[in-house]
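Interim report, section 4.2 (structural modelling).
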Amino acid sequence: MNLNQLLKPRTIAIVGASEKAGFGGDTTRNYLKFSKNLDQLYLVNPGRDTIFGRRAYHSLSEIEGDVDLVILCTPQKTIIPLLEEAAGKNCGGAVVFASGYGEVGPEGRERQRELVEAADRLGIAVMGPNCAGFANFVDGIFAFAFLVEERERGGNIGMISQSGQIVLGGLDSPNMGFSHVISSGNSCNVKVEDYLDFLVDDEDTKVVAAYMEGVTKPEKLVAAFQKAALKKKPVVVLKTGRSSKSQELAKSHTGSLSGADKVLRAVFKRYGVVEAGDLEELMSLAAAFSWLEELPKGERCVFMNVSGGEAGVMADLSEEYGIRLAEMQQETKAYLKTLVPDYGSVNNPFDMTAGIGYNTPVMVQAMEAISKDPGVDAIVVAYTITLEIWDDTISHMVEAVSIARRDKTLKPVFWIPFIEHTRHQESADILKAAGTPLLPTGRYGCTALKKILDFAVRTFEPMEPAVPEGKHECSHSLSEFESLNYLSSHGVPVPPQAVAATADAAVEEAGKLGYPLSVKIHSRDIQHKSDVGGVKLNIRDEAELRAAFAAVMDNCAKNAPDARLEGVLLKPMLKYGTEMIIGVNNDRDFGPMIMVGMGGVFVELFKDVALAPAPLTEKQARDMIESLASYPLLNGYRGGAVCDKEALVNLLVKISEMAAEGKDKVKELDINPVFITEDGAAIADALLVMYDD
Amino acid sequence: MNLNQLLKPRTIAIVGASEKAGFGGDTTRNYLKFSKNLDQLYLVNPGRDTIFGRRAYHSLSEIEGDVDLVILCTPQKTIIPLLEEAAGKNCGGAVVFASGYGEVGPEGRERQRELVEAADRLGIAVMGPNCAGFANFVDGIFAFAFLVEERERGGNIGMISQSGQIVLGGLDSPNMGFSHVISSGNSCNVKVEDYLDFLVDDEDTKVVAAYMEGVTKPEKLVAAFQKAALKKKPVVVLKTGRSSKSQELAKSHTGSLSGADKVLRAVFKRYGVVEAGDLEELMSLAAAFSWLEELPKGERCVFMNVSGGEAGVMADLSEEYGIRLAEMQQETKAYLKTLVPDYGSVNNPFDMTAGIGYNTPVMVQAMEAISKDPGVDAIVVAYTITLEIWDDTISHMVEAVSIARRDKTLKPVFWIPFIEHTRHQESADILKAAGTPLLPTGRYGCTALKKILDFAVRTFEPMEPAVPEGKHECSHSLSEFESLNYLSSHGVPVPPQAVAATADAAVEEAGKLGYPLSVKIHSRDIQHKSDVGGVKLNIRDEAELRAAFAAVMDNCAKNAPDARLEGVLLKPMLKYGTEMIIGVNNDRDFGPMIMVGMGGVFVELFKDVALAPAPLTEKQARDMIESLASYPLLNGYRGGAVCDKEALVNLLVKISEMAAEGKDKVKELDINPVFITEDGAAIADALLVMYDD
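Predicted structure of the assembly:
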């Protein structure tokens, strides 16, 4: 869908324009106040001849020529007729403020369906309904319904939100400058994903910030994320729906159905999408990426503090948030030592003392020296900026940063305050001009810094995403034998196996497989084989095999009388190793998700699993394994075996390829356990669930 | 130590008073500007006759009458002679700004030792050295060396910090009002613990906020904490030294040695000390406790939001931070439903919509209704307060809170903004007057709210703390037999056991104990018995016992030739159960700490342990066990056994009593494992380490 007529219109009509408070009046007032060019604006109101001294048209049809965008400030009932009238003016975009749609139960949902149908039929991209509109600061178009105070807001952040209130929060943030701001509301025929795609493409947008309640176009979302990753354009997303309570609220708020949260998080991770935990993070991360002139080349930071106490606080926080402290060279330290008073010492965090804090030129020298150190990637000045600047140190330090940053080879600088006092706008403006993000306080600041550093250093491996093409309702399970055969025929290494319908056949197959082996009932109707006496292990010879065959068949006939028994499944006993589990769950939006974890309570109690979308590269598979808290258990823990991690990596990659290829066939796979030994990885049991169609 | 002459002096002399910038000048200027009563102030400077138009004394001796407090703005070398001179004026307190002491290596530490010696000898309580002084807002005494802007700062927060910069941060916080502010610096003869004790006692102080780098008077600290807990006076502490880096910094900063961090955290928990993770938390928690007129009676909150998007964000955050959402009664919900527009719905978080947000009287009605609901303990209004109030909603909502809070039976109200905009001081002032804490944004706000609710609902069980009386250097291990006997003779239940020096004696003892049993080498020189072949399990009869005796003795003679072998230890085989470990570590400051965790990798990899100071009540022991992530494994996990938790509770209590009683005897105890079964808890192995003296 081309959004240019909606978001970059040449001619605009406000329908329901007015001088009174309310959507019509506020939108008109905002438009006239904040928009750059009023030549191509038409105000439409059947009851008025002029509005704020401008000609008012009585209807859209009265306008001469085409109208790219209509901003509909009128009630729900009027919307479809107005869209039809607008279509006669070759209109390609509409903003619909009216509520009473998907957010208000079955009748509303039906009205929204009708609206989408009309919009699609007429070829009009609709923003809303139940939205607050948009502002395009690049072209100077302010089609936004909530009043805001007068301020320059232009910049390079493209922001989308399903909640108008949250857009307002962004607009009210004095440190955010925008290319586009979009309140998408119920996102009826233009979805959050479409706007996201627009902003990722948009050259005036340096960073995309999105508040999302749900996903409706997963393929488009993934494609936009991939495009952003390839450009290394930061996309910061706050997604609600982590709690069941907020899922419930999103449904009643904009009619969104929230996707499975863990899956979305794994998708974010794959594409380097920066996830924000709340609004403060969303705004501050967007502002930080917006201000930064260049990303750090690595993640090693030097903190500069003015007191030992604050340096100590920063040391604790940097460890807590996994921020890597740079190890400066002896030469750098020796030089810094000449700058600090006798009682100072050169550590990282570097307590430069008030001596340097009060001395602009010396602080510039210190920053230059730290920046030149090859072991340093970024400098973080940590000091509270008070509202009413009495403390001289702040102005000295802000000035020092500003001077030091004139050297464009200086490594990136960040500023973290300790207490929420960072509203001294003049200091903020100087830092912004110096490309130095003023992060929020303490923990927020460290969270933001860590996410920015992670984004800066990550490499992206483009992969063809495996989003399913169809929606599949019905499915059926395969037997263990069939499951393993399917895996094997799709390139996944599985141990040898055979089925036998009679004891004689079993003996013959056992001759080929070799003893000792396991005997399990072969029946697609029995999933919990042990529960019905359908498993015998460690069968050492023919006599034991015949006895086991008889016992397994008898037990199952007795304990599962309705099951079709097709004989037994024979497998050589595997070498026991570390037990892992591997799973595939085919998400209806994002396709097969690969899960790996240590078997047993590690998965269940400590939730120690890694999740990633299929397919996986070897590096991605390795990263998943190494991200497990229980990973040391695979790696020679306490003198134990060093397991064959590469065999597990290979298994994960092959399974992920099978799952990606089978994105419209394989619903679930449960491998539990797979034994990882010093020289391999062997699947001991597997259950595949396939779609019927 | 009585701190009244130091902190509440009647007569004060500033030595080194001056008109010039620097400690002397800034302190003088501050004192003259901010202190209430200048009658009893003497300015001392040998080279001046007047300072700022006031008479200057050439020496302390020149002053007629006594001087309670001297503020020494002079260099390090002059300090001891001045203290001696001051003692002649019956001086009982001194503030020493000078640096060059414990923070600057061995010579400095020696100078500090001399200073302490002089102060103790002269009976003078010294604040500092290397400090920034104090301000007593109750009596109007401003003995502080850093300049701050003019503002009313009186209030009920008592703040102590080893870092002057951090005190300055507090003083600069517009929402903090203080009774006392103390920059203790190197805390030479008056320690942080002494100030803490003073503020816990002080009736003008409602909440104590402390920044600490180390502990030097553990007994005093614990006593002050216990006193505060009994009064339910909140004590908020930021302790650095969580990371090794910050421990290193603290040492170079104020010469503090940071105590074992986990131990201190367990002590905080015992006494309900509210721990702050950084400065933002320290300040905002202090301010919140200061503003609150009454603590909530329970922890069930209702959130009031103005948009569905923000309600969703709040729902996610409240779940993440464990804030309990109140379930309102149907009656309350039905009433609220009449207040919201048609499209609104009544959930918690309650999206009251802009309809109520803009309507002060209706919001007051909503708050009253929510407050009257017996299922609600507190109300949290969540809305961003912008700097330049354009958005009418804010003033309407702030006004509504203010009106609703006039009813003193209204349950406590908190305010959490979403984005760091909370510097609209007029709104903050109205909320403060209404006893409604304005918390920081999102995550910080939720952290603070959770900590306040936890503090509000916790009950304190006073216990005699077991702080060791002596310092013990040398220690020795007991054998397993001796360890278990010691435990047994100190009230800890242990399974039967016997030692035998010969095979015949072993057979005789086995007859009393019963088979099957375990045979282990009995030697205090061998700690890892299995490693030297010193263990045989599951011995079923006399023949096996004799063989085992011979094998164990032979193996150890061969593999541990230097060990004194005293025979074997016999114990009936225990019923296998869930393996737990219990440990005691006698902290030199805070005494025996009891540790419990699930055995094996749970402790080692997931650090899933609970720690608490001895002794323990049954409730405390139970809380420890239930706090383990692996606790479900004890409690019928996946159809497993429901272990005898009460037996484990009893064991912990008995061990803690043994450890508390042995606070100057027992250094360490390592019980690994103890088997917890459906009907008991049995210690399988124990190692005690005892102090020599």
